Amino acid sequence: MPTANQMESKVATPAGNAVLRVEDVHKYYELGETRVHALRGVSVEIQRGEFVAIMGASGSGKSTFMNMLGCLDKQSSGRYLLEGIDVSKHDKKALALIRNQKIGFVFQGFNLLARTTALENTELPTLYAKIDKSERQKRASEALAMVGLADRAEHFPSQMSGGQQQRVAVARALVNHPSILLADEPTGNLDSRTSVEIMEILQDLNDKGLTIVLVTHEHDIAQFAKRVLVFRDGKIRKDDPVAHRPRAAEVLKTLPTLED
After folding, report:
1. pLDDT score, position 6
2. pLDDT per residue over 231-250, tens digit each?
3. Is 20 helix (H, G, I), strand (E, B) or coil?
4. Is residue 64 part of a domain?
5. Is there a domain that residue 257 lies in?
6. Structural domain count of the chain
7. CA 82 → CA 10, 12, 19, 45, distances in Å?
C-alpha cells in the first residue's frame, strides 16, 4: 500500500477526462449488532468541467457518498478513482496529501478561525503544501479576488457578513488549485439572495473549467448545476441534466437587495 512518503510531492494526474469514477461501490457501517448498508452498488462518472448537484432525503446515502468522494471515508467494496488514482489503495497520510492537492472543500458552516484575517484563513491549506510564504500570500490574494473580496483581506470573520464569510471559505477551497470542489450545503446558513450570490460564484468558477459537486436539499439551488443526482436507499435513482438552467446573475436582478 503506497504511503505519503512514497508518493511524489505533487500527486500525478493521469490523462483522461473523468475526474471521478465510482464503480459498484458498497458501504457498510457496523452499529453494534446492526449492519447498515449505506451505499448499495453505486456507479457513476463525473467528467472534468461538470457541475453536479446531489440530492436526497436524510439517510439516502448522499452524505456517505460525499465523504467517500472527499477521501474522508473509504468504501467497503467497489472502486473509486480520483483522476485515475484508486484512492482505496492509499494510507491515511497519502489520502491527506491527495485531499490537500486535488480537492477543495466548502461546508455549510464557514469554519473560519475567528482571530485570523480573511487572507490568513484563505492561506491555511497552503501551509500543508510546502509552499513558501510569498507564494502562499500571492495565492490567497488571488483566491480572494476571485470571490470578490480583494478589499476584505485584512478583515476578521466578525467584521464580515455570513455571505462574505462563505466567500472566504470558497477562496480557501480554491487556494491550492484543486481538481474538484466539493460543496456540502454551502447555502444552508444563508438567506435567499446571499445563497444565489454564492451560486453565482460557483457558476463562474465552473465556467472557467472547475469541476464542482454540490450537496443540497434545496431544489432551487440544485437547478443552478448542470446535472442532478438523486439518492434514495443508498442508490442513485435519478441522474438527469438540468433542462432549464438559470443563471444566478440573472436571478439576482429579480431579488431585493438586503443590507448586510
Report:
1. 42
2. 999 999 999 999 999 999 99
3. strand
4. yes
5. no
6. 1
7. 14, 11, 6, 10
